[in-house]
What we know:
The protein is an alpha/beta fold. It is built from 14 helices and 15 strands. Strand 4 and strand 5 (about 105) form a beta hairpin.
Amino acid sequence: xxxxxxxxxxxxxxxxxxxxxxxxxxxxxxxxxxxxxxxxxxxxxxxxxxxxxxxxxxxxxxxxxxxxxxxxxxxxxxxxxxxxxxxxxxxxxxxxxxxxxxxxxxxxxxxxxxxxxxxxxxxxxxxxxxxxxxxxxxxxxxxxxxxxxxxxxxxxxxxxxxxxxxxxxxxxxxxxxxxxxxxxxxxxxxxxxxxxxxxxxxxxxxxxxxxxxxxxxxxxxxxxxxxxxxxxxxxxxxxxxxxxxxxxxxxxxxxxxxxxxxxxxxxxxxxxxxxxxxxxxxxxxxxxxxxxxxxxxxxxxxxxxxxxxxxxxxxxxxxxxxxxxxxxxxxxxxxxxxxxxxxxxxxxxxxxxxxxxxxxxxxxxxxxxxxxxxxxxxxxxxxxxxxxxxxxxxxxxxxxxxxxxxxxxxxxxxxxxxxxxxxxxxxxxxxxxxxxxxxxxx
Length: 442
Ligand SMILES: [Zn+2]
């Protein structure tokens, strides 16, 4: 029995390894991560022989591929870990089976994010085999804990910073060649994330005297907290349309249903109307227009017959580019309008700065998309989720989030859920994208 010999078999072998991240780091099993490193070395021997490798924290990897020049280094990112598979999720094919059915490879991590990782490695391996030297240094940064707020990525940034490296651009997962992205638009959108919302957690708490539940007072801790929560719920953050969204509508205009074209073409001038339309269209598009804050956890008294001496609510906040953590806290205080409700930041992440779109690096991505996915409309967009690449904004102005794979709506919904899968041809197209990109670096 030999090892994997084709690109598909190599991806299959990596998907079969259960590199699962858990928020409780104690639960993370190091063995699969070691096995992953071993498989990667076996599958991509030239890459491992010719690139300098730095181990980042436990299982992260940073590879350095020397180019003819080093003035404009490029960082290609992906991550090794995957989210857990829930018992209750009904996969059509086993989550770690990497089975192929009708030209589709099924398994956790095929899209998020082993497809990107293996695709990058395929290209490097094959270019090395041809004696190709990239025009600029290329760094490969593979995180091992992206799914649990990433400690490896900031460490990789620190290592690069120590070496004085300022990347020309960074490419990580995020967007995709999204099919059926917009109602009424038949063309796929190649969405490139140019900023991501900041994920921040805030705690509301009300302290009181507690006591026996047989003698309650009015507006006790729980009622006061509930009033604060309702006030927040009734006062969503103001909506607006950020620059990448305006650019997206401008590019989309010709492909939209006729009735919507004037609005899209004049998005800049008609911002308020566009913002209202997006809010009205549903929670997904509403989230594109504003900071969101929602209460996710609640706690009061531990017993039915005891008044809560302390009632707390956890608020998950997704901060839009243009807003800030301090601005959000200030607004929450204003809306809650109650001095006895304490507002405290538990975890603080600012939104990522905007990466430029009128720029050579962005145009390089667009051109590579145009060649590889000629039917797609490339466009910048605001990412709702978080990626490891946000840490790289500390050393690079051009951080782009795009996985070069076609994804249907069902496939996008399968990420972090069940039935995650990638088309074999789509995977091969993704490899072609990375190859063209590396060859086109100047
Ligand atoms: Zn991911």
